[in-house]
Amino acid sequence: MSARSRWCVLLTALAAFTTGLAAPVAAQPAAPHTVVLDGARLQQTKARLDHGDPQLRHAVKALTARADKWLDQGPWTVVDKPRPAPGGDVHDYLSQAPYWWPSQSPTADNPWGCPYVQRDGERNPEVDSGTDRQDVEKTFDSAYDLSLAWYYTGEKRYARKAGQVLRTWFLDPATRMNPNLDHAQFIPCKYDGRAIGIIDFSQSYTSVVDAIALLETGAPGWSGKDRTGMARWNSDFLGWLKDSDFGKQEGAAANNHGTFYDLLLAGLACATGDKALARRTVLDARSRRIAPQIAADGSQPQELIRTRSWHYSTFDLVAYTRLAAIGRHVGVDLWAYRGPDGQSLFKAVDYLLPAATGTAAWPHPELEFLRYAATDVVHAAADAGDTRARRAVPLLEAPPGGDLWALRPAAEQLDSIAG
Fold this sequence. Notes:
The chain is mainly α. It has 16 helices and two strands. A two-stranded antiparallel sheet has the order 1-2. It is globular.
């Protein structure tokens, strides 16, 4: 090659190189400011998906199958129930105690069949009609599924539907819910509402908070007005949760109700910018929750006395593992805590492993044993460094619809029943 030819080749290569330097580089979207989910981890997962990770593509297919089912449903609203809550305001949320049943046949003089009596673990079908309970669950589940589906696929229809669902339930003046739970889990002819009803929100609402964080990374149709409105609603709801008599009673509960209260309190505090309250709540959970509620062997005595002991043992750990995830955002390692008798979240999860992996029967009362109920909490322990849980992961039973842990690594109650 002549000197002139070599010079031409060199100039061509240099031009290509400088053009590459000047070419715009697609910016990686900012990590979502999630409360339970790890935003940086979601960002990394999305990058792997965009590069064609086959396992993640399979998981996204399962996620979008769930999201697609919501597209032609809802939106739902508290004002649609056939009669308002006992206070008379149609914007007040209303639900009925799930395990309380009429003791008499209804009559004109006693239309409810009062007095009501408790049958633990047996769900009264009345609670699914005439109240807001089923609609709020659909609102929570759809907002989460749709927001996740939009985040991973970029398909606008998912974001727009999620925004419609959230605006209708929480923001639109004609249909919005008042930010209180004064009439949750009422018992006909007995109580107009109960502190215990806070669990209607505490078990799932932190997923909605994360759904909003996902939409705020740039979802079409989610406006600054929507963002401001949800921030105000969450702030008002947090005030009610902290200051109301019901909130104080639920915070004093010694079983899963107290754990879930802490989860909701810390989650709302984190979402509204009160990181000090979130941190204090997670720190206090060590001596206030784990030490008295988890035994030295990892069992949860308050949950084992229930007729649904497997369900409630996994249920309580959903709250604990989600609370531990919030702790990560505020500098508290809840997984590292050891109580005076060696109590820990790792021990509590390990107590479930024989039944979760199908290697042994669950030795306590359970009206409907579903092995997959423990799948997410075992994943959470494995991610946190539990060697036994890591070995158990390949033996877990996938829940209906598939195991979505890779896309949303935060525990859900997979066999959910109300109460």
